[in-house]
Amino acid sequence: MTMPIDLRSDTVTKPSAAMRDFIANCDVDDDVIDVDPTVGALQDLIAEMTGKEDAIFMPSGTMTNQIGLRVHCRPGDEFICESGCHIYNYEQGAFASLSGLAPSLITGDQGILEPEQLHGMVKADNEHFAITRLLCLENTHNRGGGRIQPYDNVEKICQWAHENGLQTHLDGARLFNAVAATGISAKQWASHFDTVSICFSKGLGAPVGSALCGTKEQMYLARRHRKAFGGGMRQAGVIAAGALFGLQHHVQRMSEDHENAQKLADAVRATDGLSLPGPVDTNIVMMDVDPEVGTAAALAGELDMKGVRCLALGPQRIRLVTHLDVSADQTETACEIIQDTVKEVLEGTRVLSSTGAQY
Ligand SMILES: *Cc1c(COP(=O)(O)O)cnc(C)c1O
C-alpha cells in the first residue's frame, strides 16, 4: 500500500526531519509576558521580507486577517473586498461577529479585479451610509484557482484606495507563490499595502502560523487585539521555528510546485470529460468535471480510493493543489490515475459510486 498523493491543499504538508530538528533546538520564552526569541526572529525576518516596520505572529491566517480588519476599522465601518475572497467566504463572517463590520463586495474574474471596477465604491459622507474605511485584496486568489493579481492592477487599485482615504490590507496567504511565479519580490508587492497577512502553513510548509505585517503602531494594536481574540501564546517559538525554517528554506523551491501544477493542467487539458475553467498561474488547479463523467464529489471519492486525494469545491468542480510533499514523480502518477479513471468511466468500464458532497 503506497501513501496517498494528497492534493487536497497545500496545508497538508508535514514537517520534515530537518524542520523537526530545528524546532527541537530553538530557544523559547514566554511570548505573552515578553517576546519569545524564536518568535522575535521570525517577526523580524518577515517584517524585513515584506518591507514593513514590524510583524506579529499569530496561530492562523484567519486571525491575521481579522485582526488586520480590526486594526483599520471601527464598528459600523465597511471594507471593500472581492466576493470570492477568503475573508468573506471562509472566515465565518467574523468581521461582523467580532468587529461589527460590513463587507462591500465586488466580483472579479477568477478573483482578479480591474481598477475601473473600484470607481464609485467609496460611499459619500452621508448619515445613511456606513463609512468605507478599507480595501482588501487577495494574492494569489485561493477560490480563483491560485490566480495572480496583475501587478499593474494592484498598483493602480491601491493608489486609488489611498487617494480616496482608504487603508489597504493584503491577504497574502500565498504571496510567496506570486513571488515565485513573477519574480516580483514580496517587498515590492507589499509596498502598496498598509498591512499584509502571510501564511506559513501553506506553500512554506510549516505546521502552524501566520504573520500580520505593518507599522509599529499598527502592530502594537494588533498585539492587544491578538490577546483579546485568545491568540496570546506562551512558548510559541516551538511553532514559530517551523515557520522560520520554512521562510529560510522553502521559498525558492515553490517554483517546483508550479511546474507540477502545469503537469496536472496538461493532463486535464488532454482528457475528455475534464476541463480547466481558466489559466493555472501557480500551485492550484481547478478542474471541471463534465456531468457525463459524474459529479465532482463522485469522481473525488473514486480518486481517493485509488490514492489521489482532492477536494470537490462545487457540484462539478475539483481542486488540486501542489506542495512540498508532492514530488514530480507523484504528480505524474496522479495525472495517470486521473486520466485512466475518467477514461474508464466514459468507456463504461468503471462506475462511480455516488458519495456525499464535500463542498
Ligand atoms: C488559508 C488561507 C487563509 C488563512 O487560513 P487559516 O486556515 O486560518 O490559516 C487566509 N486567506 C487565504 C487566501 C487562504 O488561502
Please supply descriptive tags for the structure shown above:
seven-stranded mixed beta sheet; Aspartate Aminotransferase, domain 2; alpha/beta; Aspartate Aminotransferase, domain 1; binds pyridoxal-5'-phosphate; four-stranded antiparallel beta sheet; 359 residues
What would a concise description of this structure say?
This protein is an alpha/beta fold. It has helices at 17-24, 37-50, 61-72, 86-89, 94-99, 151-163, 175-182, 186-190, 216-228, 237-249, 254-269, 296-305, 328-347; strands at residues 5-6, 54-58, 77-82, 102-106, 131-138, 167-172, 195-199, 210-214, 274-275, 284-289, 308-309, 311-314, 317-321. The chain has two domains: 5-10 and 253-347, Aspartate Aminotransferase, domain 1; 31-249, 3-Layer(aba) Sandwich (Aspartate Aminotransferase, domain 2), CATH 3.40.640.
3D structure, described in words:
This protein is of the alpha/beta class. It is 40% helix and 17% strand. It starts with a strand and ends in a 12-residue tail after the last helix. It has two domains: 101 residues, Aspartate Aminotransferase, domain 1; 219 residues, Type I PLP-dependent aspartate aminotransferase-like (Major domain) (Aspartate Aminotransferase, domain 2), CATH 3.40.640.10. Strands 2-8-7-6-5-3-4 form a seven-stranded mixed sheet, sandwiched between helices. The structure holds pyridoxal-5'-phosphate. Pyridoxal-5'-phosphate (PLP) binds next to helix 3. The site of pyridoxal-5'-phosphate has 12 residues, from helix 3.
